[in-house]
Amino acid sequence: MLKVCMNVTDQCDCLAIECPIAYSTSVEEKEACYMEHCFISKRALDDVTLYKVTALYLVIFIIGVFGNTATCLVMRKHPMMKTHTSMYLINLAVSDLVTLCVGLPFEMMMNWHQYPWPFPDFICNLKALIAETTSSVSILTILVFAIERYVAVCHPLYLVKNQFFKRNVSLGNGNGGL
């Protein structure tokens, strides 16, 4: 605790102002000065809620990995599933798998140990990039699927005339795709 802030009624406000002045050369010391006295807890949640959230995250992780992996395997192996729609579903399943395997463990870890971030800064940035990318991929996949369904229902002859939509989608047989 800085001497200047010892007898002040709102010590956290004082430390927020004085710590950057006292420790102007080191970012870590600035953060430690403030966080040591003003950060409520290293955990984001109380113990009972934390255990419930962790159990829920584990259930979501197990069901999500199992379901999305099964979706990818069924779509890849079954010969009748090599369509545009199945490609959209595979795209969504892979996006969900990346979110589950990259994002969920970090979120659970942050609930258990909120401060300080134990990894290098680039991992925090990479985590955010992956989260935003998978979210965008899911949204754009659903958008493209909706547009294709709209064209199929409202303008069915357009699909017959347009050669682009006549091609079959191949999965893993060397002609592109997964």
Automatic annotation (TrEMBL):
Subcellular location: Membrane
Pfam families recorded: 7tm_1
GO cellular component: plasma membrane
Domain of life: Eukaryota
Source organism (scientific name): Caenorhabditis nigoni
Keywords: G-protein coupled receptor, Membrane, Receptor, Transducer, Transmembrane, Transmembrane helix
InterPro entries tied to this protein: GPCR_Rhodpsn (IPR000276), GPCR_Rhodpsn_7TM (IPR017452)
Transmembrane segments: 55-75, 87-106
GO molecular function (one): neuropeptide receptor activity
UniProt membrane topology term: Multi-pass membrane protein
Family label: Belongs to the G-protein coupled receptor 1 family.
Keyword Plastid appears in the UniProt entry: no
Name assigned to this protein: G-protein coupled receptors family 1 profile domain-containing protein
Annotated G-protein coupled receptors family 1 profile domain residues: 67-178
